[in-house]
Amino acid sequence: MDYVRYIDRTRAYYHSQGYKESYRWAHFEDVPFARLQKPLSECTLALVSTSDVALRDENGGVQNVDPMLMVGNVYSIPSDTPIERLYSRQEHYDRYATHLDDVNSYFPITRLHELAALGKVGRIAARTHGVYTAYSHRKTLTADAPEVLKRCREDGVDAVILTPV
Amino acid sequence: MCHQTVSLVSRYLEENGLPTVVMSVARDIVEHVGVPRCLFVDFPLGNPCGEPYQPDMQRQVAAMALELLETAGKPRTTLQAPFKWSKGEEWKETIFTEEQPFLEGEAYDNWVKAKETYRQLKSEGKL
Questions:
Q1: Helices A145-154 & B2-15 angle (0-180, nearest 10)
Q2: CB contact under 8 A, A164 and B91
Q3: Is the predicted ipTM greater than 0.90, yes or no?
Q4: One domain for residues B31 and B59
Q5: A21 CB within 8 Å of a chain B CB
Q6: What is the pLDDT of residues A46-96, one digit of tens each?
Q7: Domain around B34
Q8: Cβ–Cβ of A92/B102 closer than 8 Å?
Q9: What is the pTM (predicted TM-score) of this model?
């Protein structure tokens, strides 16, 4: 079966739910393109994700986050955090078909460390970065993306892998 | 929305000289925004890096994404991972349909709250 066209599917779905205006997805004709400056096996790689990964506290409890901070904004988590301490607060996934219990199915930090150990990539950057989805394209492009770039540069990052949920 | 945000961040990083690859289950959204490199995984929303608790598959998917960083020769390069969802493809017909409300209960309330927060910040000129 062919892949799902989410733009068409969600438009029809939200119209059926009584929403009259269609969401305007960001769209660009031109696409930038940067090349690796050295072999991947010598590169520092950062994981950046919108999967809303968070850190459990020392007792295994979950955090409360101010909802005002969850419309856009960037946060970082050390890449060597034990996987058992990570979880996702994300609710926008296909809960009929799957679950978010295995962090590596949307935030593949263990897999990336393994690939680094195999020499496929030089090293994994000290920090991973999370970006909250802003409803404003402009906020993402003028505030959050520059903050991700700044943090990547601080960590000497050469390439970035991005994952949504 | 998640897919749009990662795509926008990918574009910004590339404009500033940092190569990126996006792992995606929503191919149309990522291609609509326009990114340099996309590894498309034809799985339900939530698992763009392989099926849960399938570390071998996840490692292969991650390795394919990394290879794209080296092998893609031009922007808008999309590669599809050669895996099928093990429980069949029925989810493709039922996602975002009235029979299966995408968000319900607390998740729906949180979504409405997030949109209200957005409108409030926007009206205050903070976005």
A1: 60
A2: no
A3: yes
A4: yes
A5: no
A6: 999 999 999 988 777 777 766 666 777 899 999 999 999 999 988 889 999
A7: 2-88
A8: yes
A9: 0.93
- Per-residue pLDDT of A114-130, as tens digits, reads 999 999 999 999 999 99
Instruction: Report d(CA B61, CA B77) in Å as an integer.
Output: 16
B31 touching A (Cβ < 8 Å): no
Q: Which residues, 6 or more positions from A14, have their beta carbon under 8 angstroms from its beta carbon? A: A22, A23
pLDDT tens digits for range B21-46: 999 999 999 999 999 999 999 999 99
State whether residue B27 sits within 8 Å of chain A by CB. yes
Distances (CA, A) of B41 to A9, A18, B127: 18, 31, 33
Q: How many separate domains does chain B show? A: 2
* A130 touches B at CB < 8 Å: no
**B114 and B80 in a common domain:** no
Chain A, chain B: beta-carbon pairs less than 8 Å apart: 279
Which of B12, B45, B114 lies nearest to residue A94, judging by beta carbons?
Answer: B45
Specify the DSSP element, H or E, that contains A83: none
